[in-house]
Design goal:
Blueprint: H1 2-6, H2 21-32, E1 43-48, H3 51-57, H4 65-69, E2 72-79, H5 81-89, H6 99-122, E3 126-130, H7 137-144, E4 150-159, H8 173-176, H9 187-193, H10 195-199, H11 201-210, H12 215-223, H13 226-242
Antiparallel strand pairs: 1-2, 2-4, 3-4
Helix pairs in contact: 2-6
């Protein structure tokens, strides 16, 4: 298991080879063994293998080629709909249409997603998370016919890798681990913690390609711009309200 974890990499090119029913079933079963709030399993997984459905979903993921290449696309949703219906059918009054329970359901969905990813990688398959999911959740709701109380949180492509990228760099452990209490960072700490990342040849190439002075500027000016962040936050907040997560 540690070998699988330490060798994780995002795969963005896939062979046109199906995943066996047995493997897919085991991956999904492994997902359901993830920790979950109160054993409520506040998530649903939408499995997409049909080519037409993938074509419908591709624009919501900005038409990244791997969406069509990979044989399986999994969309992980926060889901209070099913549990609410069970409560209503059992003479119990649910009180889960609020932000706290959106948070709980979103955590549940991410935990099951990660379990599925680890299971897939342990079988030699490749995976890649699609961060576009929350950007276009409103469109996915229509395509996937999600009822109120259900909202997409993340999506993952799974398939047989058609390339073998190197491992992505990570910050040193001391950058992200705090013992007993949070130890805030001085400017000197920041300089030391990001020094190796900023010295990478790939970073130098990115700076040339993007005509930027620092790597941080690539994130703030190109990849995750404030204007985009505000726009997609506004859209996603409206979707949350429309899907019934802020009734209380």
């Amino acid at each position: 298991m540690l070998t699988t974890l330490f060798n994780h990499r995002s795969i963005r090119k896939y062979k046109n080879t199906p995943i066996s029913e047995t493997d897919l079933h085991e991956i999904l079963e492994a997902g359901t063994r993830a920790s979950t709030t109160g054993n409520m399993q506040l998530y649903s997984i939408i499995v997409t293998r049909d080519e037409e459905m993938k074509k419908n979903l591709a624009p919501t993921h900005f038409n990244q080629p791997m969406v069509m290449q990979a044989p399986v696309l999994l969309t992980f949703c926060a889901d209070i709909n099913r549990f609410n219906k069970w409560c209503n059918n059992r003479n119990a009054e649910p009180g889960y249409d609020n932000f706290l329970w959106f948070t709980n359901a979103a955590i549940d969905a991410m935990l099951v997603a990660q379990n599925c990813c680890i299971a897939a990688e342990s079988k030699g398959l490749g995976i890649c998370y699609l961060g576009t999911t929350t950007y276009t959740a409103d469109k996915m709701i229509d395509i996937l016919k999600l009822p109120k109380g259900v909202i997409p949180i993340t999506a993952v492509v799974i398939g047989h890798p058609d390339h073998n990228p190197g491992l992505t760099d990570r910050l040193p452990l001391k950058a992200v681990v705090h013992y007993e209490t949070y130890k805030d960072y001085s400017n000197e700490d920041i300089n030391k913690l990001y020094a190796d990342k900023e010295a990478l040849e790939s970073t130098k190439q990115l700076l040339i390609e993007n005509k930027k002075e620092t790597l941080a500027q690539i994130f703030t000016d190109n990849r995750y711009k404030k204007s985009d962040n505000i726009h997609f936050s506004t859209v996603f907040f409206k979707v949350l309200k429309d899907q019934g997560f802020f009734n209380q």
